[in-house]
Amino acid sequence: MSAFVAAIFLLGLCLANAINFTTVYEWDKFDFIWPSGADTSTGQIKDEYRPENVHLQFMAVFGQRLFLSINMESGIPSTLLWLPTSGTSTAPPKLAPFPSWHLYEKDNCDTIQAARGMEMDTDGQLWVLDDGSSNCSSKIWIFNLVNNDTTERVHQFPPTVVSNSINDRLLLDIVLDKTQDDYFAYITDLRSDHITVYSLKMDKSWTVATPGRRWISLALSPNREARQLFLGRDRSKELYSVSVSELKNEGGNATVKLIGEWSGTPYRMVIDSGNLLYGTTTFCNYLSKWNISEPFAEQRFHEFERLDAYRPFTLALDKNGNLWMTDSDESSGWIVNKTRHKLLKAAVGASTVSATLDETSAQQEIIESSTSSLREESTPPPSLKTGEAQSLLGVFFINLSPQSKFIGKTQPRPQSSISLPFLILLQTCRCVADPENGKNANLYQVQFEGNSCGTVRFPGQ
Known about the structure:
Elements: H1 3-17, E1 22-27, H2 41-48, E2 56-62, E3 65-70, E4 80-84, E5 96-97, E6 115-120, E7 125-130, E8 139-144, E9 150-156, E10 171-178, E11 183-189, E12 194-199, E13 204-209, E14 215-220, E15 228-233, E16 238-243, E17 257-261, E18 266-271, E19 276-281, E20 286-291, E21 299-303, E22 313-317, E23 322-332, E24 337-347, H3 371-377, E25 389-390, E26 393-399, E27 403-406, E28 409-412, E29 420-425, E30 429-433, E31 443-448, E32 451-457
Antiparallel strand pairs: 1-24, 2-3, 3-4, 4-5, 6-7, 7-8, 8-9, 10-11, 11-12, 12-13, 14-15, 15-16, 16-17, 18-19, 19-20, 20-21, 22-23, 23-24, 25-30, 26-29, 26-32, 27-28, 30-31, 31-32
């Protein structure tokens, strides 16, 4: 293999691992499916609607539906909305209240008051945080999307867990931890020095204290044997982690560990099945990522030319390994304030669809990922000890390191959670056990002419 051919191959490999977003929809102004019939409140809702005040907050995806929460200052009583993920028309779709306008009524504590973070579980249920109002306590709403969007459960937080005072609480984000016989929800409360925990099986909530620290965002690792909850602090660049085992200790304290610092305050984070954490930081017009199985190193992987917004992005992962994102560009002038919104999508990882989940209704469709079959077709090569090298021929899964060197030059190489199969003749490229991962028998460095040009992870070992 010549140096030129190797360079072309590695360049192509880098491009193949790049994350490419496609635009699904664009809005200059959101429109809604308004209440129909003789509802006297319809005219008032339209009059109070302020499109320039709409800020997208949280997002979740299930089948062919995407769910969004928006701020109350928009003038729209429904703070939880949905839209189709695809359509036949090129025009952006109107937003519809979820599940209907009837579930939103100011100071009616049997309805949703202020939807915040949301998360899908593997059983087709949508979990929604409701921060409540000055007269209504905060809640968790659980909707069964497989069974006609029925309300499965509403858990009202007791005042010993979440304050009844609207000035002493601000529930924001939620992640779900599925165990063998239960679901646990971990929740951030920006105005309290703790993490809120809820058990679906026990229908019970409690807090675990983190003295001196308040959290704005969180993300859960996919490692089920030693799962870690990653936490972002308000008005801080610091990223922390805590073992989820400590969060089961009702009324106890959690030991949080400092991981590193982002370029800004991380206000949204998600982690895909390949251990890649995607983060958005305040006042930044780019996305960042980090492989949580490696030492902390923030990497930019998608940058916008111009985004003038405090928190311009929302993020969500679906069960097919797609990363969904909205971006908002706010422009202001002497005459008018204007915000433009986009919905974007990119394939970033393997499918994590549960075999027990049925999304075959008229509105939902799951397309199986082919990456699982590709993994099954590969044959693991013989084990190598640290420092040992040998030439190999086979199908491997390549994950490039942040800096890949070839032909005497250093080129930036973004991480990717997608494991792509490539047939590599390792007669010139050597496979050497990574000394930093000596205990990991399936991770090796690829070297070309003495320079490291990435890593090879052999499946099945």
